[in-house]
Amino acid sequence: MERAKVIIHMYMSIDGKIDGDWDGLPGDKISGDYYDDQLFKLGSANANGSNTIVMYAAKGKPDLSKYDGQRIEYRDWVPSEIKSATWDVSYDRRGRAGWEKNYFPYAGRKNRAIEVITKQASRNYLAFLQSMEIPYLVCGEREINFAESLVKLKKYFDIKTMVLGGGALINGAFLKAELVDQISLVIAPYISGDSKKKGTFNTLGEFVNQRFHVTQTKKLGDGGVHLIYDRD
């Protein structure tokens, strides 16, 4: 396959919520630890949408004004000396992520950051990324071309499988683009009950006519379960 394979890998409650008061309770520690442990067994890159990245991995607010006057061209910036066994991919079309270091520590690893942006990101932001030695891929004018990003991730970084961990909007966008090859759901032994919390996919009300079938069911020690679906 020319592009990286995409696996949606999510941790959710029995009623399909991807966050809430249930997450992190003592009764779901086995399931929660299992979810984290599985991520880099599934692939070499952990990918998220900008909301999730800003919330967990890149909370800083860099002063971009110091890069005023930069004449950086909108093209991929992938220095050959930047290498890593595992990666953290940020789908960040406007350039919102405030990286304070060029990696995100997760699942016991220092996963080197990669930004996937569009030409909506400012030149100042590109200069900021270069100063942080964070490679970036320009994939689209205003909206991200997800298929192009997957080809580039495999070409430049040898990422054969990208594990997408949300949020709901980015999961939905990949589904609508027909780029989801497999879905991995770790279901905690709790019910959220909160209708305001997001589900695994948000397709903005659009039904996506794609069919998946279960290929694995595994019971976990705390009452949770791991389900894997392959696309038909």
UniProtKB/TrEMBL annotation:
Give the metabolic or biological pathway.
Cofactor biosynthesis; riboflavin biosynthesis
State whether keyword Oxidoreductase applies.
Answer: yes
Does the entry feature the keyword Kinase, yes or no?
Answer: no
Q: Where is the Bacterial bifunctional deaminase-reductase C-terminal domain?
A: 117-222
Q: What top-level branch of life does the organism fall under? A: Bacteria
Q: Which Pfam families match?
A: RibD_C (PF01872)
The UniProt keywords, alphabetically, are: NADP, Oxidoreductase
This protein is called Dihydrofolate reductase family protein
Q: Which organism is it from?
A: Limosilactobacillus urinaemulieris
